[in-house]
Amino acid sequence: MRITAAEARELATPAYQQHVEAAYAAIRKAASTGQSSISIGHGFWAQEGYTGTAVYKKACEVLREDGSTVEFYYTERQFVDMGTKISW
């Protein structure tokens, strides 16, 4: 069965979307307890942020469009602490 490029694009979930949805869930949970920011220091939000991939940049762009402040942090001491802080 044939599929056009437009149909394929419609079916494909953008690579950044699953990470944004996970961030939304974490934001909802934190906001419901009165917090105004979260820090995600593992997985995608740490590793992809460190290398600054296009997928990470797009995920951050989506969160910023929704009004959040997004910043990558990196602190090197005895161990490296890195991740993404999302504030609203």
Account of the 3D structure:
This protein is α+β, with helices and mostly antiparallel strands and 88 residues long. The chain has one domain. The chain is built from four helices and three strands, in the order ααβααββ. A three-stranded antiparallel sheet has the order 1-3-2. A hairpin with a 3-residue loop joins strand 2 and strand 3 (80-87). The protein is globular, with a radius of gyration of 15 Å. The model has no long low-confidence stretch (mean pLDDT 93).
Task: Give me a quick take on this structure.
With 88 residues, the chain is of the alpha+beta class. It is built from 4 helices and 3 strands; from the N terminus they run ααβααββ.
Write the layout of secondary structure elements.
Blueprint: H1 5-11, H2 17-31, E1 37-40, H3 44-51, H4 54-65, E2 69-76, E3 80-87
Antiparallel strand pairs: 1-3, 2-3
Uncertain parts: none
The biggest beta sheet reads:
3 strands, antiparallel
* Shape descriptor: globular
Average pLDDT for all residues: 93
- Structural category is alpha+beta
Distance between the termini: 46 Å
Helical amount: 40-55%
Strand content: 15-25%
Task: List the main descriptive attributes of the protein structure presented here.
single chain; alpha+beta; 3-stranded antiparallel sheet; 23% strand
